[in-house]
Amino acid sequence: MGGNLKMQSHHSVAVRLNEQMGAKKGFTFIQAYRAWFPKLLMLWILVMAYLSLSIYNYMDADNKVRRVEVLSSMCDQRARMLQDQFNVSVNHVHALAILVSTFHYLKNPSAIDQETFAEYTARTAFERPLLSGVAYAQRVVNSERESFERQNGWMIKTMEREPSPTRDEYAPVIFSQETVSYIESIDMMSGEEDRENILRARATGKAVLTSPFRLLGSHHLGVVLTFPVYKSKLPPNPTVEERIKAASGYLGGAFDVESLVENLLGQLAGNQAIMVYVYDVTNSSDPLIMYGHQYHQDGDTSLLHESKLDFGDPFRKHQMICRYHHKAPTSWTAINTAFLFFVIGLLVGYILYGAAMHIVKVEDDFREMEELKVRAEAADVAKSQFLATVSHEIRTPMNGILGMLALLLDTALSGTQRDYAQTAQACGKALIALINEVLDRAKIEAGRLELEQVPFGIRSILDDVLSLFSEKSRNMGIELAVFVSDKVPEIFIGDPGRFRQIITNLVGNSIKFTERGHIFVKVHLAEPSKAMINGKSMTYLNGGSDEGVKTSDGRQFKTLSGCEAADDQNSWDTFKHLIANEEHRTDVSSNVAVNNEASEHVTLMVSVEDTGIGIPLCAQERVFMPFMQADSSTSRHYGGTGIGLSISKCLVELMGGQINFTSRPHVGSTFLFTANFGRCKENVVSDLKKPKLEDLTSNFRGLRSILVDGKLVRAAVTKYHLKRLGILVEVVSNIKMAVAFCGRNGSATSGNIVPPDIILVEKDAWISGEECDLNIQQLEWKQNGHTYKLPKMILLATNFGKGEFDKAKAAGFADTVIMKPLRASMVAACLQQVLGIGKTRQQGKELPNGSNFLQSLLSGKQILVVDDNKVNRRVAAGALKKFRADVECVDSGKAALHLLQIPHNFDACFMDIQMPEMDGFEATRRIRQMESKANGEINGGLEGVARKGEWHLPVLAMTADVIHATYDECLKCGMDGYVSKPFEEENLYQAVAKFFKSKPES
Taking the CB of residue 379, how many other CB atoms lie within 10 A of it? Predict the structure, then answer.
């Protein structure tokens, strides 16, 4: 059925997938050039290497420049110092020459002799530290040689200490410093170089230096400084001939160059940093070393510096050459800087490369996610379509099964046949409930589950939930109770169906896993607790106490049933503070009302406590996971799918709340959740409360009662339900106290005896201890000499056997026993029966969802049923004919359009949605088009085709597709509502009550 439509739908999903994926194609700039990234990275590395090498070369060159500058500075410094010290010594030698000229030649007789010269030069040697000694050589011509030798007593000798051969002129040493006394009588002109120096000195009148040579008496290299000594004063600008003619001798000094340089270097702190060489470079092609070794033999030969030396002799040229002792050290700064730059550049390149690749990966992931998203959306659509199809295909035969079973149960059946049919019907409903849960989960996962926002009463919902589980709890002997704080408003704005679903799931789980004790549902406002310590809480009268209930092993637990609970949230120690606040609520009702109006939202806190088997510790983490249960044995022993709590958690979160639990194995569990609801306006609250609550409490308001119960929490819950009916309640712990209270109450009325109207006794308070044998009919109370019978006494029980009922009746209790769980309507009905007040309502006569009411709505109505499934048509026709409706069935949308051609006599149409050729939505649209055309003709004056007013046939969707057949979709195509398959009387009533009015039955 509908196979072509399904294939076309799946094909359209695939087409949309391809179109969306095709629309996503196209690359960004980074993705387009992603293949270049490795090449760019290599290029970056090469550039960084080149830049690093350039940095190293630059810094190394800079170091070399600075090294050259340092060497140049140090060499120039040493050259200047050497030159300055040499010039100082030259000046002293010049002064000594002047001294000899003055006191030897210009004095007659001479004031200087060898002894005087030696002593003077010795005393003034400190002024000439660079000279190893000085001597004076007299100018002697060959004609004066003999007289000179006779005068001095020695012969003129050559450098080799041999008699000087005959020459035109001699220069024998006549005065000498003691350090060079060995040169006395030696002819200084016997040496060729010395002769040239003497001749240059007297011709120029300046100091003249010799080339370096080994000094006599020392192996050090040295030079001789020669100054001319004149015997007479020279004119201002003497000529060479005048200088030669006036020359009388020559004063010379021997400079020890090596000692000179060593002393100089010793004065400098950095003398070890560089090597110093002094050269005579008069002959540039053959320089003569004056100090140091050959510079190319050791040290750093790659770097040297030359500094010129001016010793005052313009004929001779000298220079100082310096170089470092050691080669230039490795430039670690340059290496580290270049390496660090390379590493940083490499890291930056890698970061940029990594960022680019990450961007590429992110974009690839994004594209993949987009593709997966499109596929997921398509899969979600396909999943929804699949679920809709499966739901429709499952619910369609289930509709036939349940519908036929319902029709079968309306026939005359034997007891066994009815039991079988009812069992089959219950199993079918269970299967439908399971399908609904799976579909709810699918809606939640798809984000398509939306909450209604309608007014509803939470107390009536809790009563309905209790009624669902009342029979099972009675059979199991479990105490099932509900307590709602008086601070909780009567009406909220929210989704009653989903709230009922949460409570039903939690209570259903508790019923399933609890075999003894109690299940307690408590609702209060989620606000900070402000317990009134000095306030009056509920206490026992006449000596009662608030002691807990003893268990079989002697332990006391102040809970609803006396059994141990997972926590103390609902124990009497906590519960009594809530009761105390309820007692004082009337005192502050005005303030509360003002505060409530200020807030538009209400947050409820709901707890569901049970004393069942609890949840194992190892399974508590996965409690809210769908299709997960505590262990495998749970499924086999207790049944269930494990999806209820998952759905409840999702629904709670949709309501803006949270859900949690406390559980102890073999003790029990307490589930606690919060939910946010809107606050209802006061006029809406009064309208909703009046037909239900006011009518219910009008018959019991002002009644006085005594409640006999030994368990405090349970007594508080019972008192809550009685207060809902307007009954005043006093609590005592046993029947004797109730009787005593009746007497004390009567005596307190100044002769006006006002006994309580009823006494309600808990079953275990009646049968416990000595009171089991108590004959209540014999208990009387007296006032002013009169004896009065006790008021009606009613038992409260969770379960009650036939023998116990006979015993209670014999003991004086009323025929009616109020069976738990307590609900306002059920308690009211029982009290009406016992007290004989009010009128009991007849099922179906006054309840709006009764079969008779439906019959009054549908009786005589012309109904058209459109469904392509024959079984569904029979079920729908049977269900509607049950309520006396005239039903006509067709199997397609086209056939429905043929029958609904205006004018027609149909009052309503039940339209299936999924049908071949033309689905229900399209058929409804065409029906509305025909009606719109007809209404236009009516307004245009063609009234012959009109019945009464405008044409509008109520069209109700009749479908098993609970995912797509939503109310909004129905309204969009022009439908007035929908009825979900299989039919339920309540749903059918809600659908048709909007359009039809009930007819009084004859």
Answer: 14
